[in-house]
Amino acid sequence: MMRRRAIALILLAVLIGVSTADAQPPEESAVLVGAGDIAGCSLSGDEATAALLDDLPGTVFTAGDNVYPSGTLDEFRHCYDPTWGRHKNRTLPALGNHDYATKGAAGYFAYFGRRATPFGLRYYLAKRGGWNIIVLDSNIDGRIESAQGKWLRQTLAENPAACTLAIWHHPLFASHAQTDQPRDLRALWEMLYTAGADVIINGHVHAYERFAPLNPDGQPDPNGIRQFIVGTGGASLAKAPRRTHPYSEVWGVSTWGVLKLTLYPTRYEWAFIPVAGGTFTDSGSAACRLPPVLADPTR
């Protein structure tokens, strides 16, 4: 009896040892969660999306139009701060056109302080989970020869990474018509595409939309960039588009919500999380692009 028990214990130890030896270490990841088109004292969706953030870990991003209607410091303090402001200390903010309704976006810069200008500029680089997170300003000049364009090219060249994500307000592609699209968006896309970027997140359109990987011409490209529109932070939602973009994979206008991205060293997972009572969702995963050698897009 004792001998059988001893053999059983030895076998159990061997099995545990094999299992432990074969077990793979957990894959490191970072979480990025947020939306654009967010807060206003006369709006109701911002508290509902802020409640989602209360229960979600990671870094919060904004995709512009942080507070309505005019982006004043008073609006930030009394309308944004009680909701999304609860997460200010873990937020990567971006500028929208409503933030510029106050001259020079002074309210935005006064409220976010160094979080909005960590390197003294209104566009900046952050790193999360081995990813490059590049926050740009689509309200100012983004041409290759502009100050922002030169900064972007230099930043991409000096910070090689397996995976790169960019955030700004205005989308280049959308199913909803845009009458105020800046002229420089394609230039930003071209620089990011050339450098091997993987994901672009925008707001502006008060809807959620996910696109197939595209090249800067808007054509399907298996090695292209995937664009998300997440203008669902709390502002009034758009109506259904009259015509869907040919390479739009998913869109929704039925609920506010946030986009959660789980960033792994060579891949990412996404999930649109609706506010309480919402039923629209979206989720998936993809591998990062293989970054090409950085080429000069002016040649």
Shape: globular
Query: What would the CATH topology be?
Result: Purple Acid Phosphatase, chain A, domain 2
Architecture per CATH nomenclature, i.e. the level-2 architecture: 4-Layer Sandwich
Radius of gyration: 22 Å
Residue share in β-strands: 15-25%
CATH C-level category? Alpha Beta
Tell me which oligomeric state these chains represent. single chain
Q: What is the percent of helical residues?
A: 10-25%
Specify the CATH homologous superfamily.
Metallo-dependent phosphatases
Summary tags:
single chain; 299 residues; alpha/beta; Purple Acid Phosphatase, chain A, domain 2; 7-stranded mixed sheet; 6-stranded mixed sheet; 13 strands; globular; disordered N terminus
Structural features, described:
The chain has 299 residues and is of the alpha/beta class. It has one domain (26-287): Purple Acid Phosphatase, chain A, domain 2 (4-Layer Sandwich), CATH 3.60.21. It has 6 helices and 13 strands. A 7-stranded mixed beta sheet has the order 4-5-6-7-9-8-10, with no helix packed on it. A 6-stranded mixed beta sheet has the order 3-2-1-11-12-13. Strand 6 (164-167), helix 6 (185-194) and strand 7 form a beta-alpha-beta unit. Helix 3 (73-80) packs across helix 4 and helix 5 runs parallel beside helix 6 (185-194). The termini are far apart. Residues 1-24 and 293-299 have low confidence and may be disordered.
